[in-house]
Amino acid sequence: MITADNITTDKTESIFHLLATACEKSRRVMRMSQDGSTDPENAADMLNKLLESLAIGLDEQLNP
Question: How far is CA 6 from the centre of its chain?
Fold first, then answer.
């Protein structure tokens, strides 16, 4: 958990970049799903991997 005692500019930037990257990657999966260049099973797999990676990255920042 981020508190007033442990927040830093570096931590804030790292979390922002994790979230921004996840947003862009999920947008890419959404587009692929919409245009039919990937099937629902593959899209779900990609999103699950993305969420897992995001969770790990956030955990590293929140619980060093």
Answer: 22
